[in-house]
Amino acid sequence: MSSKNKFISRKDLTEFLEALSVENNIFHLTDLLEYVKFEKEVDSRPAIDAIRSTIPLKAFFVNHGEKLEHSGDSREKANSCEGAVTKAYGHQTANIIFGVKACDLKAKIIMDEIYLKGVCSDPFYEFNNDNTIIFSSDCPYPSDTCFCNVVGGKPYAESKDYLFDLNFSAMEKGCMVDIGTEKGDKIIASNARFFRDATSQETALREQIRKNAVVKLEDINSAYAGLKNLKLESVLKEKFDSLAWKEFSQTCVQCGGCNNACPSCYCFYLDENIEDKASDELAPKTRLWDACHYTSYGRVAGGANSRPHLYERFRNRYECKFNYRKENFGIYACTGCGRCVSVCPGKIDIRQVLVKLAGEK
Questions:
Q1: Are 335 and 107 in contact, with CB atoms under 8 Å apart?
Q2: Residue 240, Cα to own-chain centre: how many angstroms?
Q3: Cα–Cα distance, 41 to 193 (Å, whole number)
Q4: Is the N or the C terminus of the chain less surrounded, counting Cβ atoms within 10 Å?
Q5: Best CA proximity match to 180, nearest among 37, 62, 3
Q6: In the predicted model, what is the mean pLDDT of residues 176-202?
Q7: What is the sign of the dihedral through the CA atoms of 193, 199, 203 and 205?
Q8: From CA 67, how far away is CA 318, in angstroms rounded?
Q9: What pLDDT score does 290 carry?
Q10: pLDDT band at 4, cuts 50/70/90?
């Protein structure tokens, strides 16, 4: 695999995407912070240097409303995971996701642990993972809700930390490109006419842009700098029974927005569409994202609920992000993307909750 950084001009970038779109579906980030499909005939320019998308990367791997069914001639056939995946997705071309940020790449580490490395792998997630190519990009202009630096992250991805196929660092005249995998290396080799080796001046400029982004993040999160020196898993363990949880959750309306917007929330439930089934077939199931803020989340058969109170469900999300996942996977499940802050109608800021909790006597 080539160790040299490459460079591609703005004009060549468009032609490069056009070439790739012949055999791949390309979804790129826009200024509206959404992923849209790249269309050759449409004047659609990727917003390479925008912040993370509103909808997290996980939506490409675990779809809300995903049909988990198999229309076969027998019940035995319906138990075939391979058949179910083929039924759901067919033999599709690869999806290229362009503009993925480091916060989402970090979250994917957790998602991979859950869906690929457990007792068994999820065949739908595995299929999507095998058929997805990730083009990440730096985040030179963090927003006021971004705090990846507080939880050990950076506003850019490096191959030693995150798995991407290619990473693009935007500059005025083009992009510096880092190669992260053999797959990415082959893509560069197959489209060599669009790329050249980056110069030392371009490398230096990229490093300065990255430093500026880090400085901006430090300024944005100056009031929360103390969190970086704490073992948050210890804080969450010690304050599990704190009365402060009731105060923190007062404005929570249990909308589930923070869970659904979070790039590392992996919980789902299965909806059995009994009304849609034929009498001689198994009922088709739909996978729907779940949220630990919902009253029904902890409810079991018979009506018992392990977390009947709102503050208990509110607390569970923090314990999961900073305690449980740290204990199980050695990494915080919060990546500092700030989506939960942006979508919360109750104006709850996860950073403020952690600061107050850590400072509580």
A1: yes
A2: 27
A3: 22
A4: C
A5: 3
A6: 96
A7: negative
A8: 30
A9: 94
A10: confident
Query: With helix as H, strand as E and coil as C, how does the chain read?
Result: CCCCCEEEEHHHHHHHHHHHCCCEEEEEECCCCCEEECCCCCCCCCCCCCCCCCCCHHHHCCCCCEEECCCCCCHHHHCCHHHHHHHHHCCCCEEEEEEECHHHHHHHHHHHHHHHCCCCCCHHHHHHHHCEEEEEECCCCCCCCCCHHHHCCCCCCCCCCCCCCEEEEECCCEEEEEECCHHHHHHHHHCHHHCEECCHHHHHHHHHHHHHHHHHHHHHCHHHHHHHHCCHHHHHHHCCCCCHHHHHCCCCCCCCHHHHHCCCCCCEEEEECHHHCCCCCCCCEEEEECCCCCHHHHECCCCCECCCCHHHHHHHHHHHHHHHHHHHHCCCCCCCCCHHHHHCCCCCCHHHHHHHHHHCC
Amino acid identity at 23: E
Going by C-alpha positions, the residue among 132, 179, 133, 139 that lies closest to residue 47 is: 139
Q: Please, are residues 193 and 174 in contact by the beta-carbon 8 Å criterion?
A: no
Evaluate whether 98 touches 25 at the Cβ level (below 8 Å).
no
Angle at 17 between CA 2 and CA 139, to 5 degrees: 70
Q: What b/e sequence results for 66-77 when a residue is b if at least 16 CB atoms lie within 10 Å of its CB, and e otherwise?
A: bebbbebeeeee
pLDDT-derived band at 92, boundaries 50, 70, 90 = low
State whether residue 180 is helix, strand or coil: coil
Q: What is the pLDDT of residue 19?
A: 95
How far apart, in whole angstroms, are the C-alpha atoms of residue 167 and residue 184? 9
Complete DSSP assignment for 33-67: S-EEE--TTS-----TTS---SS-GGGGTS-TTEE
Element of type H or E holding 136: strand 132-137
Write down the residue that tokens 């993040």 correspond to.
217
Q: Which residue has the tokens 């996980």?
A: 58
